[in-house]
Amino acid sequence: MSNQFNNRSSKIIVVGAGPAGASISIRLALAGFGVTLIERDKFPRQKLCGEFISPECQRHFTEHGVMELMLAAGGKLLAETRFFSMNGRSVSIPSDWLNSGGLALSLSRSEMDRILLERAKSLGVNVIEGARVTEALMSNGSLGEIRFRRSDGTVESLSGDIFVDATGRAAALSGLIERSENTNELVTKKPTVLAFKTHLASVEMPDRCEIYSFNGGYAGLSPIENRLFNICFMIKADHARKVGNSPERIMTELLFKNPQAKNALNGAVPADRWLSVAIASFGHRPFAQVPNVFRIGDSAAFIDPFTGSGMLMAMDSSELLAKAMIANPGETQAIGLAYQKAHNKRFGRRLKVCSLIRHVAFRPRMANLFVGSLSINDRLVKVVARSTRNTNATRQR
Predict the structure, then answer these.
(1) In the chain, pLDDT over 90 holds for what percent of residues?
(2) Given CA atoms 244, 247, 251, 255 in this order, what sign does their dihedral have?
(3) Residue pair 85/365 in contact by the 8 Å Cβ criterion
(4) Cystine design at 147: which of 130, 135, 292, 303 (Cβ 3.0–4.6 Å)?
(5) Count of other CB atoms within 10 angstroms of residue 184
């Protein structure tokens, strides 16, 4: 806290109030920084997500001062994730195998994000909701100002010293910068995968997360608050087109070919509208070339949802950037070097491992063999599970 007063001399603007943006805002506010957090939507709002909160996230929640609120929000504590192949075989991964031990939490993004945002507000973060960033104004090679449009059409602007892109896979702030600089870094790619999500009622299954392999994709099902269940699945774009990109048809014509999925979901009733996104790539995104702009969460790297570590990576990357900013207040070059080094060390290996597993996950025959092999070797299951987490923590256990 020795830099508390100097910290507030830097204007820090975070764009995106999901778990990454809210998390770094909380950490910086606790360290004495002044932060403005801009969010396109108004909370609470639904978000496409597996809504599986890995046990390691509890450390972040405790440090943010929201652990009790998360537990009181009505989600389910999960002791197990079980993977089911199409041939009926399955393999279980106990939650306490994931490095830190403890139970996973299954809670809607609507509730989790709301709790984090309210905590940020309580710490003095200037939160602007319902504001879409529309323009990035450069000055001497750095980002100097952003313009945003409120839901009522009002256009305003904010100048800043440091900007954080926490806008998820869209990397919206980085995209505006690239367009303003007339570069081609963010060329639009054809989506290779589609993802769908909704909440279901009238599902009968144990309090655990279940993952189902099916032809061209995989699905995750877990209980959340209010006796609802979150169903989220990813499917190759060409397979989705064959059934008209319809989530209902994907479930009945493809997902239900997995006997465990059909058994769990037969009779389920949608309780919310379907959400969908198109995904063009996984893994690392290029680090921003603008010295005072930093990417965190999915805008920096998108990990495969079957790992159940997407929200963990969001909060981990926020912690890494916050530490770099606290250690080097206002020194953007030093912040960038420290953050990039820490990010590559923390996530590089696990992203490579997940890339390999992804090729298995979308191929039922390979998934059958993979699950079958794991089902008879608990030691191998533990190694695979931990390879999708912090490798340093894995070696320490």
Answers:
(1) 67
(2) positive
(3) no
(4) 135
(5) 8
Structure tokens at 219: 């699905």
Closest C-alpha to 221, from 78, 346, 89: 78
Q: What is the DSSP letter of 35?
A: E
pLDDT of 352 reads: 81
Give me the pLDDT at residue 308, please.
78
Distant-in-sequence, close-in-space partners of 105: CB < 8 Å, separation ≥ 6: 53, 55, 57, 58, 70, 71, 75, 76, 77, 78
Ordered alpha helix ranges (H), 289-390: 310-327, 332-361, 364-374, 378-387
pLDDT in tens, 35-90: 999 999 999 999 999 999 999 999 999 999 999 999 999 999 999 999 999 988 89
Question: For 31-41, what is each residue's pLDDT tens digit?
Answer: 999 999 999 99
The helix/strand/coil state of 71 is helix
Cis omega (within 30 of 0) on the bond before 223?
A: no
* Token duo for residue 78: 């999960």
CB 364 within 8 A of CB 357: no
CB 276 within 8 A of CB 196: yes
CA–CA distance, 92 with 166 (Å, rounded to integer) = 33
CA–CA gap between residue 35 and residue 29 (Å, rounded)? 7
For the chain, give me the number of helices (H) and strands (E)? 14, 21
Among 246, 351, 268, residue whose Cα is nearest residue 309: 351
